[in-house]
Amino acid sequence: MAGVLYVVATPIGNLGDITLRALETLKTVDLIAAEDTRHTKKLLQHYGIETPLVSFHQHSGAGRIEQLVRRLLQGESIALVTDAGTPGISDPGGALVEAAHRAGVRVVPIPGASAVTAVLSVAGLPAHRFRFEGFPPRKAGARRRFFESLREADAPVVFFESPHRLLATLQAAYDALGDRTVVVGRELTKQFEEVFRGTLGEAIAHWQATPPRGEFVIVLAPCGS
Question: Structure pTM?
Answer without folding.
Answer: 0.90
